[in-house]
Amino acid sequence: MLNLPHSTEVNRNISKNKFYEKADISSALKESFVNDIEKIIWTNKLSPKTLNISGSDNFKELEVFHIKLKKAKFNPKILEAIDKAIPYYILFVLEYDGKYQIWLGYKEKSANSTNKANIIHYFNSKWSKEPILALQGNKLESIYENFLSQLSDGMIDAADEQDIKDKVNQTIEIEKLQKQIEKLAKKMNAEKQFNRQIAIRAEIKDLEQQLYILKGTNNG
Fold first, then answer.
1. Mind listing the pLDDT tens digit for each residue in 114-156?
2. Domain range for 121
3. For the segment 74-103, what is each residue's pLDDT rounded down to a tens digit?
4. Cβ(53)–Cβ(139) under 8 Å?
5. H-helix or E-strand spanning residue 141
6. Could you tell me if 154 and 194 lie in one domain?
7. Which residue among 47, 57, 131, 160 is least packed, with the fewest CB closer than 10 Å?
8. Model's pTM, two decimal places?
């Protein structure tokens, strides 16, 4: 999987029941586990023990889970439930109908428990015939940040010394602005009154300016 070194291979099936039978999740999410997932395979473990890299208290392991889906459209909350159940970072490789999609979340440990985490944001690739992600870095943290950089289309710069939390938060704000602009653009195109079109266009211009400034900040 992902052409990772043999030393990292685990290749162990994990029963999806483990994630929804004991977890405090809704009945709807339990149904998603049953209806959306065919199989979960723990394929790799990236750590100082499996690679010639260094780790830290915050980055002890990075797991790779291969999830075979029953359908292309799935409930992303499934990944969040799995992520919350495991204290390490998890790289998800989803598979459906011969195509793959990679997901990786930025998560922070809960202040109340060392075994729980809060998911801040997910980054994911587009569906492709082969999962591609370059393994770069001599520290587990830098490998993780390089993965994030690749999945965020470079919005997160792994070479930037800025704190990763700030990078992720800026990326979230950028995506929010982009969605607002797209929504207003559709509204403007559907608007028949010229004066309202002008007003909406002014709103878009303002958001585009905010986006320009924020992207400049995000790029250092």
1. 556 678 899 999 999 999 999 999 999 889 989 998 998 777 7
2. 6-159
3. 999 999 999 888 888 999 999 999 999 999
4. yes
5. helix 140-151
6. no
7. 57
8. 0.81
